[in-house]
What we know:
With 148 residues, the chain is mainly β. The chain has one helix and eight strands, in the order αββββββββ. The longest helix is centred in the first third of the chain and has 8 residues, at 22-29.
Amino acid sequence: MRVEQPFAENGRPIPRRTPTSAPYFDAARDGRLSLQKCPRDGFFFYPRNRCPDCLQDDWSWQDVSGRGTVYSYTVDRVGLDPTQRERLPLVVALVELDEGPRLTTNIVGCAADAVTIGMPVEVTFEDLGQETLIHFRPQSQPQSKPQS
């Protein structure tokens, strides 16, 4: 059985909502970044029904700061997906959250050439109607580090 890919009104593909991922997308719609947290192993991402470390199912959803750093990235300048061509160049990044997990996402709000490894970023949301996508942009105010 083939399941159809959902699309936004502008033709862009949107993630498929599942019972496991629904709280993630519900939080995004409310302007929050919420991840699963295991009481033994901490936060994890992508949404799944068991902790990837201990395989227990007693995790809970918790909001996180939405701040992190660019761990790695690439710039799509070709746009093999026709629905993404209007967004080129498109920065696809792995962002390491302050809480630990890494998320694959897009960096928005700055020139592709301005993105660097280690760049501080913060969450931002894009409403596509059916779903709200999570992206990251350069931090507007860098976090101050505690004095030693």
